[in-house]
Write a structure and sequence with these properties.
Keywords: Membrane, Transmembrane, Transmembrane helix, Transport
Subcellular location: Membrane
Number of domains: 2
Strand order of the largest sheet: 1-2-3
Main location: membrane
CATH architecture of the largest domain: Up-down Bundle
GO molecular function, one term: monoatomic cation transmembrane transporter activity
Family: Belongs to the cation diffusion facilitator (CDF) transporter (TC 2.A.4) family.
Number of helices: 8
Strand content: 5-15%
């Protein structure tokens, strides 16, 4: 029978491999459509799909490492590797967003200041953008559902990368469609749309980076989670004054350290049994992989 970690790893691999296959096909399709249709926007969109494919590879590699058990050099496991994967994906998204911003701003400047036209794209580029929007939105919904199901920040981050590619394709579709339908004088719509989309992409990247960097810097779990932990401790008869509570996230699981007080006349065996019961309850709440350290002190 598969363990919880094996099931989680299998679900992540399945979602990521499906995404990588779709990304590879879209990558080839959009590059071809951009070249044949003379569309700089579609070629830029294809570069975005290339970054998606790269992040799929990153997720596959880092999640495999993060699921390795504890060893001599990693007493707390390898969960932070998954967090590192999320940071890398966020940085790639930020770079893609800034690249699109720079390219779009340069085209707009050239159009209004130098009078250079971006050129009229072909219909094949518009078709490629519409196909990309459909496939990437479906891929986003599928991947984010799997990521939330298995509680994987890296998979959720990768899902948002799919969504950012869909948004990029929306911008390309608006620009290409406007240039085709409205003709000369409106070809600047392509870079304008790309400029707007670039801000959305960079916003998503920051939203992914901030919590991941905070985790790497050992930020505590949210206040509501810590309050839930304390309430659980106090729900056990004879357990009081929880203090020195230290919490953090390690990839997909939590680490909890806390001191509690019990009756000093209680036998060591009874105190141990009660601490074990508390551990079991917390693992039921937060997952079997939760790392828990309970220090028992006598009542003063």
């Amino acid at each position: 029978m598969e363990t919880e970690k094996q099931v989680r790893e299998r679900e992540i691999y399945k979602a990521t491999i499906v995404g990588s296959v779709v990304n590879l096909l879209l990558l080839v399709f959009k590059f071809t459509a951009g070249i044949v249709g003379h569309s700089a926007a579609m070629i830029a969109d294809a570069v975005h799909s290339l970054s998606d494919f790269v992040t799929d590879v990153i997720v596959i590699v880092f999640v495999r490492i993060s699921n390795k058990p504890q060893d001599k050099g990693h007493d707390y496991g390898h969960g932070k590797y998954e967090t590192m994967a999320t940071v890398i994906i966020g940085l790639l998204l930020l770079a893609v967003g800034f690249g699109l911003l720079w390219t779009a701003a340069s085209s707009i400047y050239a159009f209004f200041v130098k009078g250079e036209s971006p050129g009229e794209p072909g219909m094949v580029a518009l078709i490629a953008a519409l196909v990309s929007i459909l496939f990437k939105e479906v891929l986003y919904r599928y991947t984010v559902r799997v990521g939330r199901k298995v509680d994987s920040q890296a998979v959720v981050a990768n899902a948002w990368h799919h969504r950012s590619d869909a948004l990029s394709s929306v911008g390309a579709a608006i620009g290409i469609g406007g240039a085709i339908l409205l003709g000369d004088g409106w070809q600047v719509l392509d870079p304008v749309a790309a400029l707007i989309v670039s801000f959305f992409i960079m916003k998503v990247s920051v939203e992914l980076l901030v919590p991941s960097v905070e985790e790497l810097l050992e930020k505590s779990l949210p206040d509501e989670v810590e309050q839930q932990i304390e309430e659980t401790l106090l729900s056990f008869p004879g357990v009081s004054e929880p203090h020195h509570l230290r919490t953090r996230r390690i990839g997909s699981y939590y680490a909890i350290e806390v001191h509690v007080r019990m009756d000093g006349r209680m036998s060591l065996e009874e105190a141990h049994a009660k601490a074990t019961a508390i551990e079991c309850r917390l693992k039921e709440m937060f997952g079997r992989s939760t790392l828990i350290n309970i220090h028992v002190e006598p009542l003063k």
